[in-house]
């Protein structure tokens, strides 16, 4: 098959997403050779030798801890993810955990599971024992949301609809996130302020050096005695040892998370689910569709949307001939690119350049075909990491 691009799939990727690649132009599967792109879910790629043919990697999910992003960035390779595609699934799990905490459902289930006897005996045991599991209702309680992206905003909205007061903290909130945030959410000026005023606290931030052990012993001590902590974001954001100590001192009434750990095993009032945040059919479908569309748009048109290591660059095609260039974010790079193209006698019809951190990305539409000599010249410019020629295909 001529002009067929190849997509290597690692892990089971939802079929609805893979169907976004037209069969006449793409070969997709777990055994393709010389792939143009890789789609992965949870497989650890840090020790995998990524073939030189690979131009992009897509993570069918939000976190990219299993992908060597920095290493691939040095090759000029974008790493795409699917932010927000699993947001509703995570939101529902967080709300379920709050309801479990407020009504003591988990220990109550264990209590009933341990009963034995005929119906009359069970009835008496239940009536005698149920007082130990008396709970509270959510209306009027305060939820603190740390991180107000898509998931945090959905959690805040759901909590408000349940009658809760909501306070939020996010120093890096985007304009889009701010627009989608319910107006009833009260702004906290610091994490410390939020922790002091919340009966329930849920975290929804990525795991970075700055967020590792974000909730530690010092901050746990600020929470009202008997508060509930929830972590359905990332393992490592909460200091597990500090949580155990806070549970034992009754500073925390409960801890609900999606990340089992040995130190948490068997600790009363600690409940960990087996990383279920995105484990719904709908979330897996949404993630696969989003990342497939992003990879296809990048391979065919060079557009970048939701790459974790490159800026968003989306430019409508105005020419049959397009160049995609990834380079280090250093002075005079655009000037050198433009000079080289002018020297080759090419007229630039449209150009878009953006930077993100130490990386920059440029799309250029020109009015005529691009010679191989120019591609070699551009690739030889110091700081240029990758150059792709993207003539329009029918």
Task: Describe the structure in your own words.
39% of the residues are buried. The radius of gyration is 26 Å and the shape is elongated. It has 394 residues and is of the alpha/beta class. The model has no long low-confidence stretch (mean pLDDT 95). A seven-stranded parallel β-sheet has the order 8-7-6-9-10-11-12. Strands 2-1-3-4-5 form a five-stranded parallel β-sheet. Strands 14-15-13-16 form a four-stranded antiparallel β-sheet, covered by helices on one side. The protein has three domains: 1-85 and 278-310, NAD(P)-binding Rossmann-like Domain (Rossmann fold, 3-Layer(aba) Sandwich); 87-99 and 136-272, NAD(P)-binding Rossmann-like Domain (Rossmann fold); 311-394, ACT domain (Alpha-Beta Plaits, 2-Layer Sandwich), CATH 3.30.70.260. It is 31% helix and 21% strand. The two termini are 15 Å apart.
Write the layout of secondary structure elements.
Elements: E1 5-10, H1 15-18, E2 26-29, E3 37-40, E4 56-59, H2 69-73, E5 79-80, H3 87-102, H4 105-113, H5 119-129, E6 142-146, H6 150-161, E7 165-169, H7 175-180, E8 186-187, H8 191-196, E9 200-203, H9 217-220, E10 227-231, H10 240-248, E11 252-257, E12 270-272, H11 281-301, E13 321-328, H12 333-343, E14 348-356, E15 359-366, H13 372-379, E16 384-389
Helix pairs in contact: 3-6
């Amino acid at each position: 098959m001529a002009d067929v691009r190849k997509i290597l799939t690692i892990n089971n990727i939802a079929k609805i997403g893979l169907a976004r690649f037209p069969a006449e132009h793409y070969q997709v599967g777990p055994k393709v050779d010389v792939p143009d792109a890789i789609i992965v879910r949870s497989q650890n790629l840090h020790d995998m030798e990524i073939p030189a043919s690979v131009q992009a990697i897509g993570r069918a999910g939000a976190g990219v801890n299993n992908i060597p992003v920095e290493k691939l960035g040095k090759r000029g390779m974008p790493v795409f993810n699917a932010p927000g595609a699993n947001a509703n699934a995570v939101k529902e799990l967080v709300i379920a955990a709050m309801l479990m905490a407020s009504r003591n459902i988990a220990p109550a289930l264990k209590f009933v599971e341990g009963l034995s006897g005929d119906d009359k005996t069970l009835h008496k045991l239940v009536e005698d024992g149920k007082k130990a599991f008396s709970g509270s209702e959510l209306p009027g309680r305060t939820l603190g949301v740390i991180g107000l992206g898509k998931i945090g905003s959905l959690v805040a909205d759901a909590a408000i609809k349940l009658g809760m007061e909501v306070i939020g903290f996010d120093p890096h909130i985007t304009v889009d996130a701010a627009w989608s945030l319910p107006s009833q959410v009260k702004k906290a000026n610091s994490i410390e302020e939020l922790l002091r005023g919340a009966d329930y606290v849920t975290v929804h931030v990525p795991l970075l050096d700055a967020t590792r052990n974000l909730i530690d012993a010092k901050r746990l001590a600020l929470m009202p005695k008997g508060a509930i902590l929830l972590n359905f974001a990332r393992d490592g954001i909460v200091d597990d040892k500090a949580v155990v100590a806070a549970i034992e001192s009754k500073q925390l009434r409960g801890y609900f998370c999606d990340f089992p750990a040995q130190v948490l095993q068997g600790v009363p009032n600690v409940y960990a689910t087996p990383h279920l945040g995105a484990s719904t059919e709908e979330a897996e479908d949404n993630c696969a569709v989003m990342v497939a569309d992003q990879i296809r748009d990048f391979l065919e048109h060079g557009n970048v949307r939701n790459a974790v290591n490159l800026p968003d660059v989306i430019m409508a095609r105005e020419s049959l001939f397009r160049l995609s260039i990834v380079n280090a974010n250093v002075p005079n790079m655009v000037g050198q690119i433009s000079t080289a193209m002018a020297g080759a006698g090419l007229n630039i019809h449209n150009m878009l350049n953006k930077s993100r951190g130490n990386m920059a990305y440029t799309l250029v539409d020109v009015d005529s075909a691009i010679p191989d000599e120019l591609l070699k010249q551009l690739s030889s410019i110091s700081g240029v990491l990758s150059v792709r020629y993207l003539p329009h295909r029918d």
